[in-house]
Every structure is written in structure tokens, then in C-alpha cells.
Specification:
By secondary structure, this protein is mainly β. It has one domain (about 30-335): TolB, C-terminal domain (Neuraminidase, 6 Propeller), CATH 2.120.10. About 5% of the residues lie in helices and about 40% in strands. The chain has 1 helix and 28 strands. The protein has one helix at about 1-20, and strands at about 30, 35, 50-55, 60-65, 70-75, 80-85, 90-95, 115-120, 125-130, 135-140, 145-150, 150, 155, 165, 170-175, 195-200, 205-210, 215-220, 225-230, 240-245, 250-260, 275, 280-285, 290-295, 300-305, 310-315, 320-325, 330-335. It is globular. The model is unreliable at about 1-25 (pLDDT under 50).
Length: about 350
């Protein structure tokens, strides 16, 4: 009787590993390529890599976030004003429509929907509510929003784009003008700059930077002492690194990486959404795909889907990178542990 039990003890973990690393959806179309720019990429992207196209038909997909409690992914179509849900077992469905602006006035927004999403406390996520010009907490069960920040110095935000959260509850977000018709020239733009902000746990809002031209995706380093912010400006496609003190105040800043040399007419994409793994590896959407860099900004590789990638997030057991790539959703299995 002990032999089957002993075998089960060793076989079960082996089967789990095989299942985890097997092709995840035999019906999904495969696409793209992986550039290996440094030998260190071999420990990150497996040699038998596969990029899978999971769903399509969006205008501009964005803001992926993995929901552990239900094993599903949420992401947004910002111009389409829709939040989608995708899971391995159930596929694609509409989760919230409209995801952002619910009014009837026209001529204000070029992108009225919600944008970046980020895990929050149990049962909720943080939302860069592009169309409502606010940062909000979104309850997954009731689908209600609680505004967290709507104004700075009495003026409405432009269109909050991406959001992240420190372990103590302090929130950081970016506010470019992408949601507004006319961008910087919009008559509805109340702030004369495009800012990077912090929301303290008491609800107060603080401006961290007003010099970036188009601040977009952002992420924290593993020790939460560095805030990386992408600049989605074709004239200056860079990532800034802001050194933070314990209060979350900026005490120094530098250019972390520059993708100017990657720009080209046949190279879609700009610095946009990003994620950082527990060991400090940076996955940053960039010209040509998702650029993989070490904690010093050294390029290790690039994941290319063939179209501009707006954002990415880790899901499943933390070793699957989901990518919102223009009008479709894709994923790739990795050999590195990411944050969900």
C-alpha cells in the first residue's frame, strides 16, 4: 500500500511542473520573436518560448492586472471604454462597460475609458480612471468606484494613466493628457503640466515631478525606494528613476534607460507600461515590444509580438507575462518569478 503513496508523493509535483510549463492553450495562435541581447536572458526566457495570441478585436488594449482570487485577468480597451475579463477556462467577456466616462458630453475625450489597473487590498483594484479624470479604488464584487484623487490645487487632473501601490498603502500615479481630445492643446486641460503624483494614506495628493513631457507607465523597485516612470514621448523615449525616501518624497532623479536608438518607422511602440520582478529585473514596454533590463538598465532581451505593446503584467503562478498588444491580448511563459 505504501508504494502507490510514495509514487504519488513524487509524481504529483512533477505533473504540476509539467502542466505549468506545457503550452497553455493549444488552440491559441502563436506569433512574434524573442531577441537575446545578453547571455543573462537564458535564465529569463526559455529556449522553447512561445508567444500566444489569446483574444483580439480591441482598439487599444491596456492595463492588465491578474486577480488571484478568481484566477483571471482584467484589462482595458481605453478608446473602447470597456474593461474585459479573460480566463483560461472561460475565455473573454465584458467585465465593465463603460469602464470610464459615463456622461454624454462629446468633444472632451479622445480616450474615455479606464486605463492602468493595479492590485489593491483583497477584493479591489486601483484604477487610473482616464475618462473620469481621477484615480479610484474599484470593488470587484459590486463594480463600484471610490474616488481617491480628482484634483490638484483646485484643478482637475488631465487623464490619470497608470497607477502603482507601495506595500504601506501609498499610491503613485501619472497624469499625461492622452485622454483629452487635443492632448496638451485641449481647452479642457486645467493643469499646465503633465505630472507624477503620490497619494498618501491620509488622502493628500503631492506632486513629485512636473518636468516629464508625457509620463506614462510606472513601477516600484523591489525595495520600494526607486520609482521608475516611462516617458511616452517619441522625441525623448526614456525611463526616469526617482529615488524616494521613506515618506515617498523624491530625493534624487536620473535617466534609467533611453530607447531613442530603437525608434524607427517600422518599430511600433514607445515606453509605456512596465513591471519589476522581485529580483529587480525590469519588463518595460518599448519600441518594438517588451524590453527586458536588469536593475542597472542593461538590456538583456526584447519580446516582440509584431505590434505595439501598451502594457504587461504577471499572472498565473507569477511566471506568465500577459501583454496587451494594440488590438490583441498575448502571453509568454517565462523562467523568472514576477509579481502578480
Amino acid at each position: 500500500m505504501r508504494t502507490p503513496l510514495i509514487l504519488a508523493r513524487f509524481v504529483a509535483p512533477l505533473l504540476a511542473t509539467l502542466i505549468a510549463y506545457a503550452p497553455m492553450n493549444t488552440q491559441a495562435a502563436t506569433l512574434g520573436s524573442v531577441e537575446r541581447l545578453d547571455p543573462a536572458i537564458s535564465a529569463i526566457v526559455p529556449s522553447a518560448w512561445t508567444i500566444e495570441r489569446l483574444a483580439e478585436g480591441f482598439t487599444w488594449s491596456e492595463g492588465p492586472v491578474w486577480i488571484d482570487s478568481g484566477n483571471y485577468l482584467l484589462f482595458t480597451d481605453v478608446p473602447g471604454n470597456t474593461m474585459y475579463r479573460w480566463s483560461q477556462n472561460e475565455g473573454l467577456s465584458v467585465f465593465l462597460k463603460p469602464s470610464g466616462y459615463t456622461g454624454t458630453q462629446t468633444g472632451i475625450f479622445r480616450e474615455p475609458g479606464a486605463n492602468g489597473l493595479f492590485p489593491d487590498r483583497q477584493g479591489s483594484i486601483l484604477m487610473a480612471d482616464h475618462g473620469n479624470r481621477q484615480v479610484a479604488r474599484f470593488d470587484l464584487a459590486t463594480k463600484t468606484k471610490t474616488p481617491l484623487a480628482t484634483h490638484f490645487e483646485g484643478k482637475r487632473f488631465n487623464s490619470p494613466n497608470d497607477v502603482t501601490r507601495r506595500s504601506d498603502g501609498v499610491i503613485f500615479f501619472t497624469d499625461p493628457p492622452y485622454g483629452l481630445e487635443g492632448l496638451n492643446e485641449s481647452k479642457h486641460k486645467e493643469l499646465p503640466f503633465n505630472g507624477v503624483y503620490r497619494i498618501d494614506i491620509d488622502g493628500t495628493v503631492h506632486l513629485l515631478d512636473r518636468d516629464m513631457t508625457f509620463p506614462n507607465g510606472l513601477a516600484l523597485s523591489p525595495d520600494e525606494r526607486t520609482l521608475y516612470v516611462a516617458n511616452s514621448d517619441p522625441q525623448r523615449p526614456i525611463w526616469m528613476a526617482f529615488a524616494l525616501n521613506e515618506r515617498g518624497e523624491v530625493i534624487g532623479k536620473r535617466v534609467f534607460a533611453d530607447s531613442s536608438d530603437l525608434m524607427g518607422a517600422d518599430v511600433p511602440g514607445l515606453p509605456d507600461g512596465m513591471r519589476v520582478t522581485p529580483n529587480g529585473t525590469v519588463f518595460a514596454t518599448a519600441p518594438g515590444g517588451v524590453l527586458i533590463m536588469d536593475s542597472n538598465g542593461k538590456r538583456l532581451g526584447r519580446i516582440r509580438t509584431g505590434s505595439a505593446i501598451a502594457n504587461c503584467a504577471f499572472g498565473d503562478d507569477g511566471r506568465t507575462l500577459y501583454m496587451t498588444s494594440h488590438n490583441f491580448l498575448a502571453r509568454i511563459r517565462l523562467d523568472i518569478q514576477g509579481n502578480r
